Amino acid sequence: MPNRFFPRLIVALAFAASASPATAAVALRGLLFDDGGPRPSWFERYQDSRQGPETIDKTSQTFKVDASAALDLTGIAGDVRVTGGSGNEIRIEATKRVRHRSADEAKRLLSELRVEMNNFNGRVEVRSVYPRRSSSGDRGFSGRIDYVIAVPTGASVAVKSISGDVIVSGVRGEVRAETISGDVGVDSAPNLALAKTVSGDVTARDAGGATTMVLSTVSGSVIASGLKVRTLEAGSVSGNVRLSGTQVERVEAKSVSGNIDFDAPLLKAGRYAFTSHSGNVRIILSGNTGFELDADTFSGSVRSDVPVTLRTVGRSDPDRRRGSSNRAIRGAYGDASALVSVRSHSGSVVITKK
Fold first, then answer.
1. Residues 291, 304 contacting (CB under 8 angstroms)
2. How far apart (Å, rounded) are the C-alpha atoms in residues 347 and 345?
């Protein structure tokens, strides 16, 4: 498996820390390989000839815990997969992987690439510890630690990584999943608080929360379905935001250079705000909840296929109720119990019904 740590780490940390979100997105896209497709074969051969074959070592440990257990993992490079299940144990399997030109040095580095695991009254902490330099004076080496972890279904989970994918499924306690360079996916988690990355996609399915859920990326898309939460904040700088089948009282969805798609019913007294700078916004409504509509765009168009009673319409006949195409529409549908606010600078806005 090609190592992604060092080129991604340098770029992601530098721009995430000091640059604006838009600048970071451009830099990440311009300098990093696209993980969606295969890398050039010459690059594979170059890495193998320079760093040598991969050396692997596996370690595992099991901790007895109670129903209020918690997992706190901090990784550097490598994928993390956490699954909730029955029982009262946290089972951790860590796979260390190292590449180096020298086989002896690879083994030594593998021994120094450590996994620290501790249990503090049911709170299991896992840390990846990297050697600072090899005996030859080389400061860097191609190494990673992949984790596969099983926790009790009621445990809370907090994962932070720098380079690698983070996947959490079937966990009923609070979930917080973060990485800098990689995808984040959360499934069947009724208490999801945060899913965040800088360079990668964020996917959430059949998740919920009592207060606020944050789904965020800089360079990638946010895709969510089957969410049940009071407040949802979903955003991307360079990517799309797609929300479907949600039951959310308050939605704040933003994208700078991507499209926003919302395909879900509105809730009475709900508040829904959609903002895109250079992308389109499409809202597909189901159900009969009434809403107040405030939508405008600077250089695109706004069209409502829903028969709203118009209060202000830009550049259009104010008596038209359906199929209007303008740069601004303000009006109401039904009892206007929900509020829908849409802003786009250079994209189009469409409101329609199933």
1. no
2. 6
Mean pLDDT of 15-34: 38
Question: Does pTM surpass 0.70?
Answer: yes
- Token readout for 120 is 């503090």
Locate tokens 């809730």: which residue?
A: 267
Going by DSSP bridges, is the β-strand pair 328-333/291-297 parallel, antiparallel, or unpaired? antiparallel
HSE value, Cβ hemisphere, 13 Å, CA-based, for 59: 13
| CA distance linking residue 44 with residue 53, whole number of Å | 11
User: In whole angstroms, what separates CA 199 from the centre of its chain?
Assistant: 9
Residues 258-274 as b or e (16 or more Cβ within 10 Å = b): bbbbbbbbbbeebbbeb
- Decide which of 106 and 211 is more confident: 211
CB 197 within 8 A of CB 183: yes
Q: Which residue type, as a one-letter code, is found at position 35? A: D
What separation, in Å, do the N-terminal and C-terminal C-alpha atoms of the chain show? Answer: 45
Q: How far apart are CA 179 and CA 60, in angstroms?
A: 23
Cβ contacts of 37 within 8 Å, gap of 6 or more: none
> Residue 70: how many CB atoms within 10 A of its CB?
19
Contacts for 236-239: CB closer than 8 Å, 24+ residues apart: 237/21, 237/22, 237/24, 237/25, 238/22, 238/25, 238/26, 238/29, 239/201
pLDDT per residue as tens digits for the range 272-288 = 999 999 999 999 998 88
Higher-pLDDT residue of 45 and 170 is 170
- Distances in Å between the alpha carbon of 60 and those of 48, 75, 96, 98, 210? 28, 16, 11, 18, 34
Tell me the backbone φ, ψ of residue 82, rounded to 5 degrees.
-120, 130
Q: Is 69 helix (H, G, I), strand (E, B) or coil?
A: coil
- Look up tokens 């699954």; give the residue: 83
Q: Are 14 and 180 in contact (CB under 8 A)?
A: no
Question: Cα dist. 234→76, 84, 275 in Å?
Answer: 25, 25, 11
Query: What is the DSSP code (8-state) at residue 42?
Result: H
- Side chain identity at 178, as an amino acid letter? E
Bridge partners of 282, per DSSP, are 261, 350
* Token duo for residue 161: 């990584």
Q: What are phi and psi of 14, to 5 degrees?
A: -65, -50
